[in-house]
């Protein structure tokens, strides 16, 4: 009986020893590696982009003529515009530089310079109106901005052209119109400010204000233009202080190039 007890105790100690050795072996093994975690690259404004815009434009200007007659007013008319833009950004630290081109159609509305003058003399009481319709605008400008993550605040400067229907002088009282001018296009300089928000890594939304300063236009009305032969000599009408101000909301698709390579974190 004593031998049987001794045998049982020996078997128990052997089992405990084997269990302890197994646990020690488990403790000496390194833990299995954790599953990799995807770390997206940091957002960057670098890349080409294309998009569209909608908004409003307000044309302004005044008119003089060579006879020294003062007009009773100047234009300040609003019009709906819509079009598109394309450009390229390059981000350096928090600064973003780039270039952008735009093209917008203007609604069929007289949004360029016009004014009304009442002549004296033989045509006393006649009302003369000078007008021209801006039909489209295209610009090319550099952009410089400061980025804060998915937000970009920028300014822009450059130039462009405005397509203008024939410059016209009309004697409203007599129903006679003379059209002409030195060009159907008008050029000028551009300055603007805006902000842009990237609501995904590829889609952005922007709001922008631009001031477009334009050169003047002239038209010379011959003495025989109106029924009464007045003005007695040719009269040259000139638009001055021409500008167009625009406010647009736009959306862009950014072909994003930026960010560090995709990595896996353990």
What can you see in these coordinates?
- The strands form 3 sheets. Strands 2-3-4-7-8-11-12-14 form an 8-stranded antiparallel beta barrel.
- A hairpin with a 2-residue loop joins strand 7 (134-148) and strand 8 (151-164).
- Residues 258-266 have low confidence and may be disordered.
- It is mainly β and 266 residues long.
- The protein has 1 helix and 15 strands; from the N terminus they run αβββββββββββββββ.
- It is rod-shaped, with a radius of gyration of 37 Å.
- The protein has one helix spanning 2-28; strands spanning 37-39, 47-65, 75-92, 95-106, 115-118, 127-131, 134-148, 151-164, 167-171, 176-180, 185-198, 203-214, 218-221, 235-256, 263-265.
- The two termini are 60 Å apart.
Summarize the structure.
The protein has 266 residues and is mainly beta. The chain contains one helix and 15 strands.
Map the helices and strands.
Layout: H1 2-28, E1 37-39, E2 47-65, E3 75-92, E4 95-106, E5 115-118, E6 127-131, E7 134-148, E8 151-164, E9 167-171, E10 176-180, E11 185-198, E12 203-214, E13 218-221, E14 235-256, E15 263-265
Keywords, separated by commas or semicolons:
58% strand, 1 helix, Porin, rod-shaped, 266 residues, disordered C terminus, four-stranded antiparallel sheet, eight-stranded antiparallel barrel, single chain
